[in-house]
TrEMBL record:
One of its GO terms (biological process) is thiamine transport. One of its GO terms (cellular component) is outer membrane-bounded periplasmic space. This is Thiamine transporter substrate binding subunit. GO terms for molecular function: thiamine binding; thiamine pyrophosphate binding. It comes from Eubacterium limosum. Keywords: Signal. It comes from the Bacteria. Transmembrane segments: none annotated.
Length: 329
């Protein structure tokens, strides 16, 4: 009898543990969960502003890569723990729009026409552009001129001095690839990359990798994001931003609410704050490239009047998948 009682106790304990573990996976109706692809310092600023301006709402910000968020939402749909997504590549938002709450009640009149979303399932969070960044001190030390065009990057004197993000693992790398395909042609772009790889040190796994290697003096030329380079220039690094004639390649990220939330009022309150207030702060402080009418860039040393490249098909997931299948480096 004692053995039977012990077995019952063990069984009940296991059942309680299983119930608790299952409960951990359920959405918490007492807090708002934000899945964010933004950099850690931008997430921290968002948390601080939410705590200051919406202290009555508990908000949990989870930092995830854009690919990770897309995979989670594709698998979980509206059952996802996340209530709001922010900084997600727009191509992914477009592919996931059936899970997103329409934003028909939100005014989009301040957006540039090209950044208004027809179905209103999500809104553009930012435009981030790419540039060629050079370490002027290192090039001068080696007695080399700065490159003036993509063709220059193939010159043998730049061997083992160039670094580029990997398009398979970074949005930064992909925006350069997409731009090359658009102005060269697809086959011609991969022919060009077959030659460029001879001068590449390696392809970095993160979008900030090229800038970090320039900081360390391990590379002289990088393909990177303009706002990341400007931060380092303002920190005193001897960097110079170059735009080739084809213009700055760019992409956009977006933000949205998921459908069917357990606490829709709190989720809407947080999203409204991000939409109507915080986005302007984030643009002014961190990612200033224009998505709004009459938007000005006030960050020191940030390029003005940027000419952007041809980014046709940047939001086409199928097109992206096909290009990445051809990536062999």
């Amino acid at each position: 009898m004692k053995q039977k009682s012990s077995a019952i106790i063990i069984f009940l304990s296991a059942a309680v543990l299983l119930f608790n573990l299952c409960g951990c996976a359920r959405r918490d109706s007492q807090r708002v969960v934000i899945y964010s692809c933004l950099e850690s310092f931008r997430n921290q600023d968002m948390i601080e502003q939410l705590q200051k301006d919406l202290p009555h709402i508990s908000v949990n910000v989870q930092s995830l890569s854009t690919g990770k968020i897309a995979s989670k939402l594709k698998a979980e749909g509206t059952k996802s723990e996340g209530d709001i997504i922010i900084g997600l590549d727009t191509a992914y938002s477009e592919s996931l729009k059936d899970y997103l709450e329409p934003l028909n009640g939100y005014d989009d009149s301040l957006y540039l026409d090209e950044f208004k979303i027809p179905g209103r399932e999500y809104a553009i969070w930012e435009r981030y552009g790419g540039c060629i960044v050079i370490n002027e001190a290192l090039l001068a030390e080696k007695g080399l001129p700065e490159p003036a065009c993509y063709e220059d990057l193939l010159k043998p004197e730049y061997k083992n001095l160039i670094v580029m993000p990997d398009p398979k693992s970074t949005g930064t790398g992909y925006l350069f690839l997409e731009n090359m395909v658009n102005f060269m042609g697809e086959d011609e772009a991969f022919d060009y990359l077959d030659q460029l790889v001879e001068n590449i040190i390696f392809f970095t796994a993160s979008g900030s990798g090229p800038v970090n290697l320039l900081i360390q003096g391990e590379a002289a030329i990088g393909l990177g994001l303009t706002f990341t380079v400007v931060q380092e220039i303002n920190n005193g690094m001897p960097f110079k931003i170059i735009y080739f004639d084809e213009g700055s390649p760019y992409n956009t990220s977006s933000f949205a609410m998921l459908r069917d939330r357990d606490n829709p009022k709190d989720v809407a309150a947080v999203f409204s704050y991000l939409y109507n207030h915080f986005i302007y702060r984030d643009k002014a402080l961190f990612s200033p490239e224009p998505i709004f009418k009459n938007q000005t860039i006030t960050i020191p040393n940030y390029p003005q009047n940027i000419v952007y490249g041809d980014m046709k098909d940047i939001n086409d997931i199928k097109h992206k998948e096909n290009l990445l299948k051809r990536w062999r480096y």
